[in-house]
């Protein structure tokens, strides 16, 4: 199931597309350009279905912002001249659909595109370069130590790891106390609230991570 953002100012068209897409995908809606940008900056999406003629902020601008986030965009619009289509593709759209269109065909295009994506990471995941936990609904900034610790725990969800194991995996040959592990876990728990990831204490054993 992919996360899809539908950006369409026409309420009827928006609801029709939602009905088709929500049968097989997780769908979020935006009725204007500014609302779309707020969602793009706050949440994680696999693809955006974007009308170009929008109130508050143009679809072109939304597409450019989506591009910087690496989110593919399919443009859906009444602007159907050759120059309009070429401009949309120049901006970075992966496809350009002109109105009127069939929602079934649009859904098929989206599914076909998503199937071709190589090695799409399952959420939640950790981007170790930016030290960011990426979940279905949020991006959480982590410290270098938190990134290493949570990465190791998420490799073995449900398995209890004792402090010594975590110290070896994260700190290696550095001499650190068990309190460092506990303090890092405490900070992580605060950051993980509402993400669907929970670090549990297994009394007499250590810690385990559960992904809901």
What can you see in these coordinates?
This protein is an alpha/beta fold. The chain is 42% helix and 21% strand. It has eight helices and ten strands. The chain has a five-stranded parallel β-sheet with strand order 2-1-3-4-5, sandwiched between helices. The protein has a three-stranded antiparallel β-sheet with strand order 6-7-8, with helices on one face. A two-stranded antiparallel sheet has the order 9-10. Helix 2 (33-42) runs parallel beside helix 3 (59-68). The two termini are 15 Å apart.
Short summary:
With 212 residues, the chain is α/β, with parallel strands linked by helices.
Low-pLDDT ranges: none
Q: Examine the coordinates and then state which fold CATH places here, giving the name of the CATH topology of the largest domain.
A: Rossmann fold
Q: How do the strands line up in the largest sheet?
A: 2-1-3-4-5
Largest sheet: 5 strands, parallel
Shape: elongated
Task: Give the helix proportion (percent range).
Answer: 40-55%
Structural class: alpha/beta
Estimate the mean pLDDT confidence: 87
Task: Give the full name of the CATH homologous superfamily of the largest domain.
Answer: Response regulator
Number of strands: 10
The sequence of SSEs as H and E is EHEHEHEHEHEEEHHHEE
Architecture of the largest domain in CATH?
A: 3-Layer(aba) Sandwich
CA(first)-CA(last) distance: 15 Å
Count of domain modules:
2
Q: Report the β-strand fraction as a percent range.
A: 15-25%
């Amino acid at each position: 199931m992919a996360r899809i953002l539908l950006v369409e100012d026409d309420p009827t068209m928006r609801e029709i597309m939602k009905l088709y897409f929500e049968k097989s995908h997780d769908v979020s809606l935006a009725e204007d350009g500014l609302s779309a940008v707020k969602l793009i900056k706050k949440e994680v999406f696999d693809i955006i279905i974007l009308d170009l003629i929008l109130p508050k902020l143009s679809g072109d601008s939304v597409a450019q912002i989506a591009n910087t986030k690496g989110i593919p965009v399919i443009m859906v619009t009444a602007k159907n001249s050759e120059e309009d289509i070429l401009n949309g593709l120049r901006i970075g759209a992966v496809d350009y659909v002109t109105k009127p269109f069939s929602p079934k065909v649009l859904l098929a295009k989206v599914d076909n595109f998503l199937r071709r994506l190589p090695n799409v990471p399952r959420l939640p995941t950790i981007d170790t370069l930016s030290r960011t936990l990426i979940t279905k609904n949020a991006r959480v900034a982590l410290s270098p130590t938190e990134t290493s610790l949570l990465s190791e725990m998420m490799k073995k969800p449900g398995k209890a790891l004792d402090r010594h194991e975590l110290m070896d995996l994260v700190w290696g040959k550095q001499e650190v106390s068990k309190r460092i592990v506990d303090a890092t876990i405490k900070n992580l728990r605060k950051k993980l609230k509402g993400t669907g990831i929970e670090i549990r204490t297994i009394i007499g054993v250590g810690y385990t991570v559960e992904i809901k």
